[in-house]
Structure formats: structure tokens, C-alpha cells
Amino acid sequence: MKEIVLCGGCFWGIEAYMLKVKGVIETKVGYANGDRVNPTYEEVCTKITGHAEACLVKYDESIITLEELLNRFWSIIDPTIRDRQGNDKGTQYRTGIYYLDEKDLDTILKTKDKQQEKYEADIVTQIEPLKCFYDAEEYHQKYLKKNPGGYCHINLDF
């Protein structure tokens, strides 16, 4: 099993999308790479914690490679927009790839460089080691499964 943390706007949509990807074994939504220890959703929404809404993705690399997984991720975000995806605006909605294994950095940068060829504007997606990840409240976990028809800026039909 490998793990990576992906941020792309509201974490509900990232999680719902990733759960449909063959080879993804488990997901968990939470708050990543901020300054406050164990923040609440309400605190993250104040934009003072520095955290991004994030999805921890556990995947089986014998089924899907990191490159394939990241290509899917890049396809559902606009990596050239800072602090916004869909209708969600604010620093907690930034795009990011936070890695747990230093060996993944080359693959991450390779996919970013390939994506950059598609855009005139610079990609602003953060790429950095995972500094911290705090689980979001239980009601956020698998939110769109519990609440079909809930807001999602990502097309989940694939």
C-alpha cells in the first residue's frame, strides 16, 4: 500500500472521485499542512489555520501507479487557479499534492511538467512533503455517499 494526500477544492468531491478509481483501497478526508493542531472544520473555514481540505488516498500500486493516479487527479482540478476550485474560494480550497515518500517526488514533478504543457498560465498546485494531517469530523467522511446530491464541483460520472 502507498499513500498520498491530494487537495483540490472541497474534499468531499476529491474523496468521492478517488473512491471510484480502481486500485484506490481507502480514503480519509481531513486537514493538511497547516499550523493549528487538530483543527475543527469551523476553524479551517476561518482561513487562519493554514490547513487545506485534503484527502488521504491509500492505493495498491500493483493495480494503479502513482503516475496514473496523479493523472486522474490533474484531470479533475484546474491547477492554475490559486485558492479556488468550482464555487469554493479560500486558502483551504487550494490545490496540493503532499507526499509521504520522498521517492514519489520525481513522479509528481514529472506529471506536473506534463500537465503544464496544457496551460498557458503557471500551475500553482502546491507540491511538498506532508507536514501534518488531521482527520476531519466523522460527518465529512464519505459525505457524498451519505448525502447523494450534495454539492460537488467534480464530475463523478466516469
Automatic annotation (TrEMBL):
GO biological process annotation, one example: cellular response to oxidative stress
SUPFAM superfamilies, A to Z: Peptide methionine sulfoxide reductase
Pfam families referenced in this protein's UniProt entry, alphabetically: PMSR
Superkingdom, taxonomy of origin: Bacteria
GO molecular function: L-methionine:thioredoxin-disulfide S-oxidoreductase activity; peptide-methionine (S)-S-oxide reductase activity
Enzyme class: oxidoreductase
Annotated Gene3D superfamilies: Peptide methionine sulphoxide reductase MsrA (3.30.1060.10)
Active site: 10
E.C. code: 1.8.4.11
Catalysed reaction, written as an equation: [thioredoxin]-disulfide + L-methionine + H2O = L-methionine (S)-S-oxide + [thioredoxin]-dithiol; L-methionyl-[protein] + [thioredoxin]-disulfide + H2O = L-methionyl-(S)-S-oxide-[protein] + [thioredoxin]-dithiol
Name of the protein this chain belongs to: Peptide methionine sulfoxide reductase MsrA
Lineage: Bacteria, Bacillati, Bacillota, Clostridia, Eubacteriales
Gene giving rise to this polypeptide: msrA
